[in-house]
Design goal:
Layout (H helix, E strand, L loop, with lengths): L22 H11 L3 H13 L7 H13 L3 H13 L7 H12 L4 H13 L7 H13 L4 H10 L4 H13 L6
Length: 178
């Protein structure tokens, strides 16, 4: 899975070096500079993946942060991912969890999966297969197909009562913010 992030630093004052044949990047840059969170997230993806721009995780983090601060759930997941990988941001499970949880509050399918992974591996939280299974189940329910495999894999290491507990928690889950 590839996920991106953003930082608080301002973008460079000189225009980015575009790669040949990438008008989508020029368009995204134009809209991102006007404060459009969708364009900011997209520009962060371009930087993170090196599509149309030289790969630059610091720039990716900056653009994801701008969008994440405006409540863009995808950018929040991308920013959390950069923190979880230590790419363009200091490695920080705490910050990764912070941004994943913000996106979960908006019912972002990928954010549920990211929290599942954090609980499965005990990264920044106590390791809990019950919690991991619950988050993967919610992710799958919200459309993240890859979460089904993760959920089913950890279920093989759980008792029937743990699975039942996880399923009950998933049914009762609601965001803390409406």
């Amino acid at each position: 899975m590839s996920f991106l992030a953003s930082s608080c630093a301002a973008p460079p004052s000189s225009p980015p070096q575009l790669l040949i044949g990438e008008p989508a990047v020029s368009e995204a840059l134009k809209h991102a500079q006007t404060g459009d969170p969708n364009a900011q997230n997209q520009l962060g993806i371009h930087y993170s993946e090196g599509r149309g721009l030289p790969q630059n995780y610091l720039e990716a983090k900056d653009w994801f942060k701008k969008a994440a601060d405006q409540g863009h759930a995808g950018a929040q997941v991308n920013l959390g991912t950069l923190y979880s990988l230590g790419q363009g941001a200091p490695y920080s499970d705490h910050m990764a969890l912070f941004w994943f949880q913000k996106a979960v509050e908006q019912r972002n399918a990928l954010a549920f999966a990211k929290l599942g992974m954090m609980y499965e591996r005990g990264r920044g939280v106590p390791q809990s297969l019950v919690e991991a299974h619950m988050w993967y189940s919610l992710s799958a329910a919200y459309g993240e197909k890859r979460a089904v495999e993760s959920r089913d894999t950890i279920a093989t290491r759980m008792t029937r009562s743990q699975i039942t507990e996880s399923e009950e928690r998933a049914k009762k889950w609601t965001p803390t913010r409406p």
